[in-house]
Here is the input.
Amino acid sequence: MIPGAAGTLAGLARTFCLLTCLLLAGLPAAGAAGSNPAAPARIALIIDDLGNQLHQGKQVIALPGPVACSFLPDAPLTRELARLAHAGNKEVMLHLPMQAVENAVPELGELTLDMTQQQLIDTLQQHLGAVPNVSGINNHQGSLLTRHPGHMAWLMQAIVRHGSLFFVDSRTTAMTVALQMANEYGVPGIERSVFLDNVRDPAAVSGQFRQLIASARANGSALGIGHPNPETLAVLAHELQRLADYNVELVPVRRLIEIDKGGNELWQASWSHSHKVAKNSKPSQ
Here is the structure.
């Protein structure tokens, strides 16, 4: 544990408690006029970039409720923490590195535009094998690759052949076509609604969490993505215990996809088929 980390988190938590009254004052409680306690809004949460730090990884796994844990495939602690997350009933995801516009030098293991289809498939399979009990994928960076339909089609074809994975578009660029291609190939998918911590400040994270709740209330569901930063973990450790006060339910990512796609008969048929394939497939090691 990093010296002074506990005190830092405690201080952040205290600061956050003071901010909560101001930042969430506009959110009515579950019994307020116009709300429907029988039909809560749903949110899902993914914490990215896991696998490099043991203490922060364990803090994420200890968060209340089904917070999904997304692991970098080449991080040194990915296997250990992914197994702990699975044992703790958290969804385990592959945080798949993809080429970004601003990256002059590719990151380790990222999918790039100069790859052939077979190279992309082989790299994906290698990364999936590095994350035990993986159930879904979301992109790490990818502001360049996710805007290219051809490469996204290759990726979705490979996911379909796997038979049991869902895909979350992290939306690192407004020009992404990743979710569109997932839908075209029948891959269960959804996109990120809110980034929680582009600004590493308790007040900013609290404001983004408020935006996530507002989006869920407006649309019925919303998905937030954050990172294992002390500020983010302090906010979530406090707020996830208060969701019932806001008539909001935290659900697994897979469940949020089911809710989001519930009215799509074509998607439901694909989802049913993927589950049948998954039952006949060997589990990831």
